[in-house]
Design goal:
Length: about 575
Amino acid sequence: ASGGGSTPDPLTSQFEFHRSLSRMLASVVSGHLAHITSNKKVLDETTRDSRCFSNFLRLLVDMLHHPSGRIAMEQLQLWTNLFRDPQITNKKYRILRPFAAELVTCYTDQMVRLRWEDVEEQTHPYSSLMEASFDDEEEYDNWWVEYRSKATQFFKYLGNCEPQISSQVLSTRVQSLIANHGNGEPRDHLEPSNQQLTQSSEAVRQMEGVVHPMENILCGLPPWALTQPAGETPGTRSQIRAETTAALAQMAQAIVNWNPTYLWLKMRRAQLLEGLKYIWKHDQSTLLQGIDSLLGYIRVQDEWGGGGREPDGTTSLSMETVGLRKRSSTALVSVAKLVPQHLVPWLSQLSDAARSVLSVNDLAPSNRMHLYEFLSCVATAVDDPSQRANFIENVLSDALNNLQSAETLEAISSVDGFLAMTGVTMAGQNPASVTDTATVKETSNRFSRIFSAYNQLLSVGRRCHEATKKRPGGGLPMSLISPEQLSTMDENQNFPDEGPISIRDLSINDPFVHLWPRILPPLIKLLDAMMKMWRPEQQAILLQNPVQRYALAISDDDAYLSK
């Protein structure tokens, strides 16, 4: 039925009834969960009570095919509760299994964001129904965010209870999307300036709709469905595992082999690659290809264009390219945090590839920080403490050398040096410098060089500390115990409260510790200069100048009241 006509179609005119009915039916089941779990006849497929309950669930599932997402939303919490209950999902009872595939499909369909302009222009096949479901685009966007949030647990529990079915449905959908939209088909809603796909394009929206279900289903899969537990006897689980891993392997291969040309499709592929980390934890056959693709996206050239020209004549990257690079670098860190042990054999090659990406001139500081985090995450999985510490020091060599450079030491040695480095001194002497392109760029670059180094140290140190806490002793080894003995220590054993601790002993678990003697001296000098800037004798100077006053973030009114 079309919603564009003057007479409301049956779906539109009966929308409120369907919504109320869906809510009421879901409430009936939710209110009787205790009875369902206590009365085993309801769950036993051979009984009449079970068949009646199954028919009731069939009615609920049939209503999920309604085009309006409001109908599905009314039942979302019910299905989450059903799949979360261990008694209902017990392997003895399979009352929910016949509906699993439809549930994945229906709730994934609603993840595809609605193009509201189609509703306003009456080109959507259910325009009047969508207008009856949502007052305006803002209300739809708010509903979509809430739906996405609530569906997270649903997909996880569904994947945990029915790994075989959810994996097969997910794999089929992803492969179908790549086949039908992998090259941008139907190439609608293009950007006029470059003929690139946009966020409103059908291919981009369809790919976006599968990212969230895929990540959460894969996250919820039970370990036994991907890897055979030790001592498991042959049985039903073996068949489920074989079919699950086969479906996931096909999906992973399809995503890795997919090579889209449009920028927004590359963005969606980066999101899908990040979701594959849950598969790579058990099957590493496509891991290196995925990592290589993400590294390539971090250094991708600006295919969008129109990023604008800076006052000094250089061309800035478009926001779309910046977004792709950022999405890819965060995905890289996310993968390395989950499967660092599987990347250790290729640590040298990964380091060379990362350094090649770091050599790109227009790489953003956040991308550089994420690359350092990526390498540090992999390095923390190295077994040998000495190699681990040496690699971390090598990764951070540029940042450490930057902090110990003559430029940095001069800038942090005194308040005058710090104010000169940040351009505050020049602004007082020559107010026109704050608008001079060359001066602003030079000052910004100098500031970025110093504080980007601290950001890199912070991110790598945090990753090392997280990995350290997972080692025996929580990162505090006994000073007189060798690394060989440390590996057999009780995980609850802590370091003694008294006595000296050598950096060498601490470095056995935390490869970042031995760098503190090089980090602390310049850090203390920087903090000292920044704190001294707030002393009355310094404030008296800065407050007198209307331009320098902003270094203290003090308004004209506050400056007047301080007299």
